[in-house]
Amino acid sequence: MAAAAESPPARIQSHPGLSQGNPNETAIPGLFASQPPIIDLLETQSSQLQRETIEECLPFLSGEEHAGKCNQHGVPRLDKQRHVKFLQKQLGKLPPQMTAADPSRPWFFYWSLAALALLGEDVSAYRERLVDTVRPIQNPGGGFGGGFGQDSHLATTYATVLALMLVGGEEAYRVIDRHAMWKWLCSLKQADGGFQMVVGGEEDVRGAYCASVIISVLGIPLETSPDSPAYAAGHRDLFSGLGEWIGRCQTYEGGVAAIPGIEAHGAYAFCALGCLSILDAPHRSIPKYMNVPQLIAWLSSRQYAPEGGFSGRTNKLVDGCYSHWVGGCWPLIQAALSGPSSGEARSADQQVADTGSLFSRNGLIRSAQHKWTLKVARPADSARGADEWEAMPYVEDEQIFDEDDRIGTTHPVYVIPQHKIEAAWEYYASRKRL
Description:
Elements: E1 2-4, E2 38-40, H1 45-61, H2 80-90, H3 105-118, H4 127-134, H5 154-167, H6 170-174, H7 178-188, H8 205-218, H9 242-247, H10 266-279, H11 282-289, H12 292-300, H13 322-325, H14 329-338, H15 348-352, H16 361-364, E3 370-376, E4 388-393, H17 418-429
Antiparallel strand pairs: 1-2, 3-4
């Protein structure tokens, strides 16, 4: 069903700023700068869209769309100030046509503040405005809705909590009613071990991840209340049965579905790995509940060439959001394979797993500027313990972006800067009562 493409053979395009004929100069690898060497002869709507996507991506990957704006490797420079202005605009007054997005307001806060933090901006300046905005959307029964008068939902609660952690400070920490949050989380915990997203609503892997992040960040007690749907089933702990439930969501392909028995999806893979990395250190929890070789095979298949990016599902197109969802899986997978770099005896296989990258970083151009390493793992069977992670610039391969284009780091599990998480842990650990 496949044949060699009729397009010219793989090549590296010329780039502005690169002199021709110098073999020592580096550009984007030919695999990511030319038509794919193999094409599927079965024409479908998906294959047509795939071809159109490749044709749209290639001029950017070859530098043709950024004449005079590329570095010596043919990579466009990152215009940080334009990004900052765009993100600041999203945190301002939005036009009337955005009313339909009212239930998603917490995501605007989180996405914009997280991106600004990565670009080096001081987001604490938004603290007072954010607290005043989210206070009315917190419900007396616990959790945050998308907007005023809306039911509490795990997704919008997750986004609101992380936005508050980003701006930091006691005012932001204190606005969260942790006792009501605990009661509400208990009402979402289900008899099969998972979490509903909203009371009476859907149960899926998003719920497992969002709930585990909220519990971990805020120091929520793990004991379930007697009126919880899970209590009668024997789950006296909010994390009880959660790893087993996630394990049942792994599909025959190796990926992870929203619930057992449906299609694997990149975002759910990250949610599953992130949740498991909160339940225990990833080198213990991920192999315990997941078939890691099958998961790696499926995740590896999500990166395409020449686009370089990731798709979210089998036979789907690449999408920028999966640079996060699928790309975010790799540090956790690497930690599952390698274990901690110090503090425990390491096998020869774990030491070998430290070398190289599990995906093509050059294909992503600049999406993987840092390498996260599990430095020290918490004690075994300690859901409350915090693993110690370390972020370092990649040194194995040549850097193809300018140092001025480097952005900040974000925690591989909690997806905000590590010092923001540590500040929240310190604050809530000092609180004697909820």
